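Sharing a chain and its predicted structure for anyone who wants a worked example. Both blocks are below, sequence first, tokens second.
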Amino acid sequence: MKHWARSIQVALVFIGTVVGAGFASGREVLQFFTRFGYWGPYLIIVSTFFFVWIGAKVMLLSAKLNARSYEDLNKHLFGDYAGRWVSHAMLVVLLGVNAVMLAGAGSVFSEHLNLSYQTGLIVTMFACFLLLRKGMNAILTINTIVVPLMIFFTLFLLFETLRNPLSDQWFRAPNEQSPWAAWLSPFLYAAFNLSMSQAVLVPLGSAIGDALVLRKGAWMGGIGIGALLLAGHFALASRMPGIDQFDIPMGGIARELGAWLHWVYVFLIFMEIFTTLVADIYGLTLQLHERTKVSPWMLTAALLLLCFLAGQFGFGTLLSALYPMFGLLSLGWLFLIGRDRALPLPPPGPPSPDPSGPPPKLRA
């Protein structure tokens, strides 16, 4: 039972890391799947396969290498020299992704809470900075609470969608995009999200260290991500093309269900954005601290300030421009980790440390 409990915890962190601003808002699902009409579910199945397979390999390799950060994994995949430059590029990409996360939080405040966009950015930055003082344990705890709630409400939206007379529109919607663009989309989506998830999956795999726990967690997490993608796709496709006008389209769907459910779901969207921002900033801070030895809290503050400045471009603009480009850059990484065969066996020694124990601290 302890193995299963820890595997579920790993799965929830995996889901919470991927389900960020683009996913929880629905904008990412529209960009990579729903706009391809009836092909959307088949593209999601392809992505789910990669989440299970590559997610497990990232965590298992990290456990075997005892990797302290994603640079250690990249050096194993690309060699010392190239791996260092790949990690430099990933720092820039991760910073762009975190800017999108922060911009998504600002859009939630402006589009659904009747507060200014800048207020959303500042409040989220401050809360992120405070939570990051607690380290990996805080990330595990917050995902254990938020992810099950997001799964429940996403399934509830799917149930409400199935009662809609247009619920089968996903099956009839034509694909007006290029077939090449459609079938490249799941590879881009999986490559981008998995390479960005390294910031959390690498230290998580090293901290857990138990191959059986990590494999189970990867299976449950990958399938969970696929199920959420399908649920979000069906809900959005039944309301196309009108739903495309929202920066936070899932929030627009929740608004149809009444004020109370709308507020609850918008809060959950914000929390999913927030958890991914916290996890990614944590990973970036570890990486930069290993390189520079600068105080972690100063690095965290500097990263959040850079994200704030980039967030001035707006959520929709950043996501549409950056995510497909980052996906293309991540395809080489996906290929190399997919062909790597150096996987560890279940450790025969004493049990691995409990992740609920004393976490690594991001303190000066």
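Comments welcome. Residues 90 and 196 are 8 Å apart (CA to CA).
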